Structure formats: C-alpha cells, structure tokens
Amino acid sequence: MPADSGSASHRVLGCPELLSLVLKSFSVSDLLEDVVVNSKRDRRLHRATLASCARVCRTFTDQALDVLWNTLDQLLPLLCLFPTFRRVEAYSLFVGDLDEGWARFQQYARRVRKLKYRVNGLIHPSVWTLLARRNDGPCLLPNLQKLSAMNISLTDVAPLTLLFSQNIRSVHLAFKDDARPTSSKALSFIATALFDNLIKNTGPRLEELCLFPRFPLAPTRVIALKTCPSLRHLFLSDSSYTILDEDDIRFLTQLSHLQSLSLTIVLDDTHTAADLQLGTGFPLLEELWLDGDVSDITNLRSLHMTVKEVSRTPPTALGDVILPLYALKRTKEFGCDIHTLALHTSDDDLRELAQAWPRLDWLHIGGGLASPGVRRASSFPRPSVRGLVGLAQRCPRLKVVDLPALEVAQLPPPESVPVFGRPTTVLRLAWMPPASASGSGTYFSLAILLDRLFPKLEKFEIGEPGQPDEVGRRVYRYLEAMQAGRKHARLLEPSAQGEGLSSEEKEDVVEESDSDDSAN
C-alpha cells in the first residue's frame, strides 16, 4: 500500500515501531513489583485484547504475541501448549511424549521476560523431570530477565532450577513458612544449594538479588557473589540465620556497584563498626537497611533501621543510639523502628537530629513511647512543640514527620513560636497524652502552633495506621479552617491577590473566586 494512501490508522499501524507502542499499552503491570497496579480483571482484559490483535493479520501477530507472553504470573499457559498435557484424576501431567508440541513450546518460551512463579500443587512432579530430559539448553526460558518465587515449597526447588537463565537480571526468592522441615538450619542446606545453582547460571548479569526472611542462606556462601560483578541491589533478609560478620562485610565491599543493601551484622568483641570502613568500601551505596550496629557510612541518602535491643541500662535516649549515624550528612530520609524498647525521644534528640541532617525531608520514628506498656510512664521525656520548632528551623525541606508521641500538657504561647511556613504536608503521631479538662482549648492552641510551623499540612493523624484517633481529626479541622481563612482573606484584598502565593495557591484562589462569582 502506498505510504500516502489509506486511513491514518492504517498508516500508523503499518509502521512496526508505532504498532509496537500501541500494543505495549496493553501490557500487564510488572508482576515482580510489590504493588500490582493493574487488577486481575484488567490483566485478563489486556491479555484478551492482545490475543485478539494477534489474530487480526500477520503484521500484528508477532508483535502482539511478544507483548502477550512477555510477562507471566504462572507456568501453566506454557505447559498447556503441549497436546499431551492433560488432567488425570487429581493431577495435570504428560500422557505422551513431548515431541509433538516441543517446537511450539520453545517458540513461546523465548518470548517470556518476566515470570512470577506460582506454586501449583496440581502439577505432577514428573512434568519437571520430563521437561529437564527433553530440554536441549540450560534452561526452559532462555530470555527470562526477572523471576519472583515468593512461596517456595520443597517440591518447587527442582522446577526453579530449570528457570535460571543466564540472562536473568533480577531474582526474588522466599520459602513458605511451612516449608521449614525442622528448623532454619535444616532448610538452609536446600536454600544454599538453590542459591549456588542460581549464581552458577546467572552470576555475570545478575543486578538484583532479594532473599527474603524465609530464605536461610548460610553466611559462608556469601562469597559466591564474587561472580556477580554487576550486582546493584542485594537483600539478605533472613535475620535469624543469614548473619554476617566483619569479614563478610569486607568481602561485600568488593561489589563496587552496590546501590542498595539489606543485611544483618554481628561484630565480635574485638571489632567495632568503625573498623568496617563501609563509607569507602561502597562508593555507590545510597540505601542501607541494617539489623545490628554501624557507625561509619558516609554516602547514604536514605537510612532505615530497626533497634531490637539495647545493651545499656537504664534505658537511654534514642539520640544516644543513633549518634554514630549523625556523620551521614547527606541523609534525606531516616526511618527508625524501636518496637517496644523504652527509648525516650526528647526535644533535645529532635534538635540534635535536625542539626546533623539539615537536608532531611522524611522522618519516621516508630515504637518506643507509642507502646502501651510505657506510654503512660511520666518519667520518660516526650517531644513537645519545642522539638517541632527545632525540626522546622533546621530542616527547611521536611515534608513528612512521623513521631511516637507529642507532649501537649504545657503549650508555649503562640507569639513565642516563630512563623516558619515549612512545606511539611504530613504529621503523624502514634500517641498523644490526654489533654487537661480544657481539652478543646488545648487542641485549638495546638492547631495554632502547628499552623505557624507547617501552614501547608494536608494530613494530621494521631493513632496507629488505619486507626486514626478522634482528637487528631478535631485538631485537623481547626487547621483546615485556618488554611481556608487565609485563602478567603486574600480574596478580600484584590490589590494583593496572588502576591507571595505559590502557583498552586494562585489556582486555589482563582477557583474559589470563580465559584463565588457563579454563586452570585
């Protein structure tokens, strides 16, 4: 067909590059992500659309099939390509040889790039034995790049070894809870053998490896990662078994491309965290999740930590625990969960934290005084509005603040609190002590003080996630009224309208002005 003839749709779909873009808009979401954007119904609809496109004409067929088979959430569709794959009583299995459907199976298997391995107890174990014997190459899916198997049973180990392609870039693995035969130590032999097989086949190109809490890898096998020079993201999350020492950490410093690292460390009495020199060993590291102790990391922007126990008695301040981390001057995000430990967080702690990390834009401190067992202890200092003033003064970019508690028994007078106007949009408190008899007055006064510090608050909550307290809603209603009052005050001053406002605030003023005009 001449280039200048036919409808616009024919000319667009006749171009392979444009056709590819159109078809990729029906691709299902990445099933390896924690949050699946498309619903199950949407994915089914998209796949049906792609299957229909593949039947339109030969021009569409190959490209539509490439997108359709790019991402699978189970292996069953591939197995159903064999005419001899049948359901026999309680199991699905091969009732004949594999020669008849083998060429077609390979044709479609080469299209698969992402697979979420789903356990299917209805597939007979003999299926994987026959596929392994018939397969000519090292794996069933030669072009597979992403593999997620999050609920492995012991019978799934053999099928998984058939999926380890040399082209794999990302792997997520975890055993089912009931897959532990007797203990983590017993399961560790199987997990370590599976790990060795994975590294042997995928090592050179592997970029992301996530071994989650139900994957007890023997710490001595970490050395096998030396064959993974491209590794950028490493998560060794079984903190009950995969525990590394200073020698293991020093070995990991050889993986110079690491950007994200999650592990559990335990140092003996002759070493301190400073001996590890992590700052120079991981030049590209930007994110670190630790169970343990660390004090010399100098290149992080995002830090998330869990404090499970403290050796000091009596209980001390949170600031004393995280003091070694204040050297991380580039930190922008800090999250710390202290669970039920009786670590207090005072105004001084918040001021010191803010002074050490002036670039902070996200702060989360969970647990501690928010725990029911210790929240009523009057002897424990709690952060107050003065602590929030210290945060607002030294962290001008702070957008999200999550604290375990806030003391409101003695609020400072409003004129003593500076007007900072910080861009903070979210303030959460796990708990707030009950106010005095004049509760309403206390909550209104608190709202006035918060508005001076954070005039752009979009959310103020008290309570556990998903269980907001009524007090928090009451304070936020006061804040909303103050914010609305400012906007309407500007409407009453036409000469000053829009001066000193952000683009979003200008749009709000215009919209409200238009709505007022239409009402009149």
Automatic annotation (TrEMBL):
Record-linked InterPro entries: LRR_dom_sf (IPR032675)
Protein name: F-box domain-containing protein
Acidic residues biased stretches: 505-520
Annotated region (Disordered), positions in chain: 489-520
Domain of life: Eukaryota
